[in-house]
Amino acid sequence: MKDTQVNISSEFSIIKKYLSGIGASYLKINGIDLSIGDDCAVLATKSKLLISTDTSVAGVHFLKSMPAESIAYRSVATALSDIAAMGGNPVAFNLSLVMPSFESSWMAGFRKGLQKISREFHFPLIGGDLVKGPLQISVTVLGKPEKNILLRSNANPGDILCLSDPLGSGFIGFKEYKRIGVLNKTTKPYLFPAAQISYGKIISRFASSAIDISDGIIQDLSHLVTRSGVGCNLDLDKVPLVNQKYAKQCLEFGDDYQLLYTVPQKKLSSLQARLNSFNKKCHTIGIMGGKKLVINSKIESIKNWDHFQ
Amino acid sequence: MKDTQVNISSEFSIIKKYLSGIGASYLKINGIDLSIGDDCAVLATKSKLLISTDTSVAGVHFLKSMPAESIAYRSVATALSDIAAMGGNPVAFNLSLVMPSFESSWMAGFRKGLQKISREFHFPLIGGDLVKGPLQISVTVLGKPEKNILLRSNANPGDILCLSDPLGSGFIGFKEYKRIGVLNKTTKPYLFPAAQISYGKIISRFASSAIDISDGIIQDLSHLVTRSGVGCNLDLDKVPLVNQKYAKQCLEFGDDYQLLYTVPQKKLSSLQARLNSFNKKCHTIGIMGGKKLVINSKIESIKNWDHFQ
């Protein structure tokens, strides 16, 4: 890490005390030759590498009032979700923390969040920087793909459109957090979203394409449709939701980080068997084909979404 | 690249029009299997990889009033400078652009700056994201090391402390730009700082350690001293400056991105010969040894810097 602009000693002590040594036990096994402390980190990777960057801005992607532990965890999880969508394994991450001022308790919470996700996914923080400015966190994750890399662009006509889990836990958790402001079973999926790494690895052997749902199912499905050059018939009413009362919000809000993917029909049963053996499900919600994205739904307001048609 | 939050179509059109296809001709030769457009980029690298992240914040690292072309170029150059300090070769970069609003002319300039540095160093933009928020740019650069990787930690007692070029062009350029607000010979080094990639590659065969000077020579030298666990006698008055009248500022301001490095005495003459053959110089400004950083200088204000002693 490298300090910028502000008082040297304080910047250094912050980096040393709060941003160093996170996931250090995973450095060697993940092929990291050199971590925080030099101009660059050094990776000794024999395999291909996945890389993705995601920036989270206070007031846009998270509430300033949220616990620093959650802000840190969420910022890494949303980036990590892109590795999951490719069916990859986490290797390491860089983090750039921009914050207006230093508060030891906030930084302690922030470190706790980084340690939490680092431990969960066995990958270390290997670099980045700490600068003064409006609160935001930019995370770059590195991943190692499985044998098959899941792309957005390989869906074929006839492939079945699948979803990893019900949508809406992000919206419901957000709504509840704004109301009560504490961590509980309902707010946890928003405060500590789960990157679907293990799910992504399982489906990587079966799926033809995949994307993570960060911006709402219609929007992310439209990426998959566009990149694959094949239309889709989406049975929106078949999409499992956490809360039917807020159907539209659960579908549009995003922040669920579930995986949306396509599977050739002949592989569907073996995929389902495989998922069941891991106590995971596969929700079939449509079929690929035609030239455009067609949304079948009883919900009037949703049926009228036509900005992709 | 992936849009976030804001109006889909506009975000997509911005990414497509202004942030795609930058350095596309370098994708294949640099081992990039997949670039912008999916959840991750995919690198097929057989060598070790260098990685570094640098974030530039409006009002902290650059002036909002600066040309967007310069803001883009500078943001990438400062990150690229970390690759130079390791003696590496640019491979690719990710860019996260956070901006409060969209202006086509500004974005056109920003794209121009990205294309400029991408062309100069033959490396492509392979991913990142575009989000709404206070203007700042986070860049993650990937590099391929030469046979020897230059670390901050390998300086030995007796090694000669060297500098690539005179300091102060950043400060003088900044001062002049604030005064006249145009691009000229004086402001160029600030608006478009040069990452010392070729210089770093040349010295990588001779130097024992290196660091780029982004935060002022004393501060960056202190990193090298600390990491190497060896003191240094710095002849501050031997440090070549762009402008003696502003000696202190030239030494403290940073933003020069020159390389500060150590060379074993027996290798110095062959390094100098090698550099001369490329019309480059090596300024010897001190010697490593002892336990602390000792600054020898006639300038009173500088002699009194004692926060590393």
Structure description:
Chains A, B: One of its GO terms (biological process) is thiamine diphosphate biosynthetic process. Chains A, B: Its EC number is 2.7.4.16. Chains A, B: It catalyses: thiamine phosphate + ATP = thiamine diphosphate + ADP. Chains A, B: Mg(2+) 3 binds at residues 39, 82, 212. Chains A, B: InterPro entries: PurM-like_C_sf, PurM-like_N, PurM-like_N_sf, ThiL-like. The structure is a homodimer of 309-residue chains. Chain A is α+β, with helices and mostly antiparallel strands and 309 residues long. Chain A folds into 2 domains: 11-145, PurM-like, N-terminal domain (60s Ribosomal Protein L30, Chain: A), CATH 3.30.1330; 160-296, Alpha-Beta Complex (Phosphoribosyl-aminoimidazole Synthetase, Chain A, domain 2), CATH 3.90.650.10. Chain A is built from 10 helices and 13 strands. Chain A has helices at residues 8-18, 68-85, 104-121, 169-180, 188-191, 197-203, 217-228, 247-252, 265-277, 300-303; strands at residues 2-3, 32-34, 41-43, 49-57, 88-99, 125-132, 136-145, 160-163, 209-212, 232-235, 259-263, 283-288, 293-296. In chain A, the strands form 3 sheets. In chain A, strands 9-11-8-12-10-13 form a 6-stranded mixed beta sheet, sandwiched between helices. A 5-stranded mixed beta sheet of chain A has the order 1-6-5-7-4. The first copy, chain A, has a two-stranded antiparallel ribbon with strand order 2-3. In chain A, strand 2 and strand 3 form a beta hairpin. The radius of gyration of chain A is 20 Å and the shape is globular. The first copy, chain A, starts with a strand and ends in a 6-residue tail after the last helix. In chain A, 58% of the residues are buried. At the A-B interface, strand 1, strand 3, strand 4, helix 2 and strand 5 of A face strand 1, strand 3, strand 4, helix 2 and strand 5 of B.
